[in-house]
Amino acid sequence: MKLARRQPGILAIVCALAEYLDTHGAAIDYRRRRATFTDIALSRQQWRQFCIAATKRPRPGHTQLLHARRYMFQLLTGADLNNPKHLLAFQHPYQTQNYLSFIRDLPHRFDKACISMRTTCCAPPASTSR
Length: 130
Hints:
Layout lengths: L1 H5 L1 H17 L5 H7 L7 H10 L8 H16 L15 H13 L3 H13 L9
Helix pairs in contact: 4-7, 5-6
């Protein structure tokens, strides 16, 4: 708001952009995203930071970290995790049910934590940037 008071033209530009996007939408090229983001490089330390930011207690073990990577990959790319072409696809039928339980138990604040930390673990590989 301070910037808008100092630069009223910026507020007008942001409002015009918001109106345009509300009217016309913004196409998301999920095919390109899936080609660019084949994996989510999320370390245990980053997972702990996500949990702290979202007030979720991290559980020990590899499964929670794998489900978090799957969740962010699916959010980012719109990928079908049942498709074996994806690196993070479900390998066994029981993983689907465990993943759905993981998603159900995520606190609402987790999405905000994902957004605030996305540049840390979700940046595309340098070789694929335009």
